[in-house]
Here is the input.
Amino acid sequence: MRYFSLAPTFDLGDTRWRWSLNAKRRWALPGTECPQCHAGPALGIDYPSVDLSGLPEERQYRKARFAPWDEYEPLQERVLPFLPAGAVPRSGMGMGPLVGKVRGRPPPVAMDMPWRLFAQPEGIERLLAAGLRGITPIPTAMTAARDVPPLFELELQSGGSFAPECGVAPPGAPCTVCGVQRLAEAPKAWWLAPVESLLSLDLFRFRWDPTMTIVSERLVEVLRSLDDTGILVREVPTTEPSAASARP
Here is the structure.
């Protein structure tokens, strides 16, 4: 199985689609800095399925801001029961649907940021019909022209890792204060851990770089069947790069 990273094209001359979003996440944790490991806000970690509407303090999560740890910690604790299984909270993490406006007409499967993947009903049907794993469409709360189909956001789970042969030092234990686990240093040349460890998902956010969306070749086949989606596809090596480059 081959794997690929996805990113949107920002050159509208490369695609027939003319569309954009003016939207923000309904809720988010404030940014902060961990007093022990000094981890800061994370980019690319969003959980659109999280619903804080029943939380009495939900308005405290509506305004983006930076907060001291003492103020941040109870805000994080309150949202833990609402997070998907296995989710590790990070400061700056977005929650709930995107709210705003869609301009133009997106393709059936679309991206506006390397960490945000969307689909219209036609795109969802194609992805599910292909038997892809990890496809969790969540309705957005965005308005669009009457003839534009509703837009769903695909919620990403965390997955994948560097292969042991990359020479990456094993990560330390999660921080006892914020729970974040970090690598001392990312490798300059890397490839994914053995494919056998990836077979449960065809779509995921890379564990050590949440801004990178990785998909299987099965999902890429669906994208190609949809013709011009404006999504750039780049292969992620699953063997040492020198060997991968020799592949015909």
